[in-house]
Amino acid sequence: MNSVEISLTVGVVSTVLSLPLAIAMALYLERTRSRVRHAVQTLIMLPLVLPPVVTGYLLLKVFSPIGPLGRTLARLGAPVAFHWLGAVIAAAVVGFPLFVLMIALAIKAVDPRFERVSRSLGVSPWRTFWRVTLPLTWPGILAGAAVAFARGLGEFGATIILAGRIPGETQTIPLQIYAELDAPGGERRIVGLVLTACAFCLVCVALSRILDSWYRRRLELDR
Amino acid sequence: MKLEVAARLHRPGGFTLDASFRCEAQTVGIVGPSGSGKSTLLDAIAGIEPGSRVVVDGEDMSPRPLHRRNVGYVTQDALLFPHLDVRSNLLFSPRAGPLGDVPAALGIERLLDRMPRNLSGGERRRVALARAILSRPQLLLLDEPFAGLDEARRREAMSLLASLRERFRVPMILVSHVAEEIIGLAEWAVRLEAGQVVRAGPSASVLRAGETRIDNYLTGTVVGDRRVLVEGIELAAAIPRSASGEVRLACYAADILLARERPRAISARNCFEAVVRSLTDAEEMVIVEIESPRLRAVVTPQALDELALSPGSSVIVIAKATAFAHVGAA
């Protein structure tokens, strides 16, 4: 695989894998009154402010091939460190805070009384999530996914520490650009990659905006 | 319905609700100024706010979460699910059976394929009410259902509720910050102030001086030119000439006059004999309830003394035709 294909694969897999957890976390933050909520929120937001290299280092400590978790995963055929799964995990962790924030905003825009009305009509909280919360928030969730995907595409620091720069396996667009800039004549070779990265990010942000305004109309927030 | 409520809860910011009452009535009113805890009390009854004891007809609902309480909850914002059309909103509850005559009773049968964003405020409220009724609730909770409506719309909505209550036999708890707004509908009422019950009893007894705009709601059949037959009495009423079939009328209690003898020549078009059913003291006035047709009149204690009225005594009821306003088809 070339770096564009690797970036797209890593971006899609990391976004899809973190989606259920991001929804669950956003629901927890927006719809519960738990006292530990603020502590959880701080923890989730940490990768947003931590230097990505530090995040990568901490992840490497967790998934180290000589550690118990890394060893077990390697035995199961899914080693994380210096493997494309490492790039997926790095992108997922770094993009997670933005993803949760965007979904939380989408859930916040839904009047919680809709969910109460649904329950008063005899629908369980779980069914209410599927029949009311999700249909009302999914454009917002997709908008969040687009942003998280774009953030994953640009991930560099954590990826190079956790997954390394293995051409054809973990070398994403930013890693290849970094490598080419180090080599003579590389600046000419990266023009295509730079344009591709810009185009991907532009599409993601535009898609996110379109979805956001669509769901606001859907909820009649802009009336 | 026999209802027993003991709600005690604290809200961040220092508000405490400590309201207990027990009653037996088909419609209960909760009245009080803004911020007195009416909606919080309704939330406690619904099970949205946990920790309160609610017993309906001997059945303790307290351990049941909201989705197992079987209460219909209608707020002033209607809260129709914006991603579903009217029909899907109406059939949202797993308890909802076929639509039957509910949409027709609420005048929304032509709106079934519309999306909520294409409905007017009044239409939304009627759909929300129909949705709650279709979920076959054991108890219907209505939070300020008439807020923001002008006088004509409010009377129309209240008379509609009165007719729905008779038709579908759903016990209701109504919340309003205007006491007289719901006294016309509720047989029993609770007045809340700062989270405490300051008065509870037959609805007229929680009224205060000056609160005299109690409405009467009647349903009858048009039998002639602006004449409506209500419980065996033919009333002259201000209905459009085009009205026919079943109609709903509203009449303020203060617009009903009572007399001992039939006046000889009078401009009022309605003059008939009726029987006093009950007398209730409200501050500085007395509510006289008469039967056939069932109406409430407000009189001063002095007038009551002069008329020497007591339950069971007969009285002459006088009202202008314009006192009976047409508020819609039944």
Largest interface: A-B, 22 and 26 residues
Work out the radius of gyration of chain B.
21 Å
- Major sheet of chain B: size, sense and barrel closure? 6 strands, mixed
Strands of chain B, total number: 20
The whole-number mean of residue pLDDT values of chain A reads 87
What is the tally of helical segments of chain B?
A: 7
Tell me what you see in this structure.
The complex is a heterodimer of chains A (223) and B (330). Chain A is mostly helical and 223 residues long. Chain A is 78% helix and 0% strand. The mean pLDDT of chain A is 87. Chain B contains seven helices and 20 strands. A six-stranded mixed β-sheet of chain B has the order 6-7-8-3-9-10, sandwiched between helices. Chain B has two domains: 2-206, 3-Layer(aba) Sandwich (Rossmann fold); 215-329, OB fold (Dihydrolipoamide Acetyltransferase, E2P). Classes of the chains: A mainly alpha (223), B alpha+beta (330). The A-B interface holds A 111, 113-114, 116-125, 128, 131-132, 135-136, 218-220, 223 and B 46, 48, 65-73, 75, 77, 79, 81-83, 92-96, 117, 131-132, 135.
Keywords:
heterodimer; A: MetI-like fold; 78% helix; globular; B: 330 residues; alpha+beta; Rossmann fold; OB fold (Dihydrolipoamide Acetyltransferase, E2P); five-stranded antiparallel β-sheet; 20 strands; 19% helix
Give me the secondary-structure topology.
The complex is a heterodimer of chains A (223) and B (330).
Chain A: H1 3-31, H2 37-49, H3 52-63, H4 68-75, H5 84-108, H6 112-120, H7 125-153, H8 157-162, H9 173-182, H10 186-189, H11 191-218
Chain B: E1 2-10, E2 16-24, E3 27-31, H1 38-46, E4 53-56, E5 59-60, E6 71-75, H2 86-90, H3 102-105, H4 121-134, E7 139-143, H5 151-168, E8 172-176, H6 179-183, E9 188-193, E10 196-202, E11 215-224, E12 227-230, E13 233-236, E14 246-252, E15 257-259, E16 270-282, E17 285-291, E18 295-299, H7 301-307, E19 314-319, E20 325-329
Parallel strand pairs in B: 3-8, 3-9, 6-7, 7-8
Antiparallel strand pairs in B: 1-2, 1-4, 4-5, 9-10, 11-12, 11-14, 12-13, 14-20, 15-19, 16-17, 16-19, 17-18
